[in-house]
Amino acid sequence: MLKRFIIERAIKNIGTMTPPELTGAAEISNSALAKLAPKVQWEHSYVAKDKTFCVYLAEDESAIREHARLSGFPATTITEVPTMIDPTTARA
What we know:
By secondary structure, this protein is α+β, with helices and mostly antiparallel strands. The model has no long low-confidence stretch (mean pLDDT 97). It contains 2 helices and 4 strands. Helix 1 (19-36) crosses helix 2. Helices cover 32% and strands 30% of the residues. It has helices at 19-36, 61-71, and strands spanning 3-10, 40-47, 51-58, 77-80. The chain has a single domain, classed as 2-Layer Sandwich (Alpha-Beta Plaits). Strands 2-3-1-4 form a 4-stranded antiparallel beta sheet.
């Protein structure tokens, strides 16, 4: 069973990358993911000034570290997310 993780990646100036540059980065990530399937899946990422915050499903932290090694994108901090809440979690 896959677990959900948030990966913080420190990547200088990532927030100034152009759409074609981000497309290239996604292609590199997808290539690494293809080598690791089905152990790790990328859901989506948030791009900030000098960081990305990526949401992944993975068997374990080592699968994420292997993706970082293959892709060349650092996994600065990896945090497992065992529980999620959202506005619908509140009582009406």
